[in-house]
């Protein structure tokens, strides 16, 4: 039999991105089209099936070469059953995504949540290629994560493994409420939202910062100001980095992964973020648990989701 | 072939305990004798081999029924190679324990560290029987731990997984140095040593506590005083419990285990320790990550090590 290909679907609220990967996780083709959430689940799943067929038809591969199809999306999922229990951005409730797609496509379909899938993508052919035990952070509006053990996504008993943004890491004395209902979650300080909140608080307190001149502060503005030497911005960036580093120190003695990968929009800030993360990690991790462990930026960017979704059907 | 049996060895600095388990992890026979560390590694390994042969000879089982032998000990190990790199309490350096025992016994031998092995024992036939994903804490002089994923010990990339005592969990502002070289480790507050230190500090500060009347304070004294309503002792117990609960809250969103098991001498304190641990866990863990997750005492006591060591040769 000829080479097998793996199809990945990144199902977002605005666009559906479909990709073909080879057996090594190399992304060969992508196709992107609108989700049109307003049409409802059945129509959106039909659109996914159309895009999948189209990308294969337009390639040099045959349908028989498709080893499986995977889809990543945001929401609460029943992963083994392939059911989307609730997805706020798609507006779905109890949608049998796996079953419906399998009927439409006649191939095995697997679904998983977007942060897990991005982690698998990075582990397969991105910043974690060749490494079996990886922990990925996705720093965006929130803080997501994924745990890759032995090259597979680790779901945990209730599918909540890798929810790194909800590690209770901020000391009680300075903790604020998190959207999840708890207090002191990593996400409250180390997400774009958290960084912007800290910047707005500083401006409101009339602290001396160039950020006060902006009409609306974005996380990127805080990093830019920090790079210019703005003390307040630097303090905010260091605080965001500090708690990421501390959370990694804990994970290092719980799971002892070989590599931490950081992706998502916030990670594009670069060394101004990574240097204090690494410093904090070194400070709080016992030597044996940090030996040979590195902290690196994700490399696949927005493709991590498609690649990881394709990888859901791999059996190494 | 008749039923298989599994031999476990708990190699301590004072005694060697050997046990026979059946396929369900039930401990059928045990034999205990002195380690005599001063005789050196070769003699101690010879003694283990003698005890193993003796316990089988004295039983109704035959040597052919022995499926494998496992040993748990404290130290830095190369687990796949079965080498004791360094064991302070045995005084061993680079001892090829697995190889030597296999030569002496003609059976497969596996070694692992004592906290991992105790965790496996509890997961196999103790408080975690029937559950696949378990995190165990051992609260003694230090705080040890073990991660059981899919009924097997998870070692991590460098063998440092499950070193729960070194989670950096105490906020910087109140953190003290840990023996591991880091600051704010769980072990500094939640081990017997940590509890005694906090009690001594309180007495030294002339706080009003019944503990001041004791010549030498043990962890049990602190729990006893707390049970009598001593406010200072209660505060110390709550602090020790608080950080265990917080560490579990983090683990719940990293690994999402189904059950936390707490063993070791300190765990015998009972509800006065478990209640505040559970309260803290509930406070800091998102609902989805604590649904169906329980926190229970270990049930095998001192046998956990022998049972878990026997379980090292299981392939579920």
TrEMBL record, chains A, B:
Cleavable signal peptide: none
Listed Pfam families: ROK (PF00480)
Protein name: Glucokinase
Enzyme category, top tier: transferase
EC numbers on record: 2.7.1.2
Protein family: Belongs to the ROK (NagC/XylR) family.
InterPro entries attached to this UniProt entry: ATPase_NBD, ROK, ROK_cs, ROK_glcA
Keywords from the UniProt entry: ATP-binding, Kinase, Nucleotide-binding, Transferase
GO molecular function: glucokinase activity
Organism name: Paenibacillus eucommiae
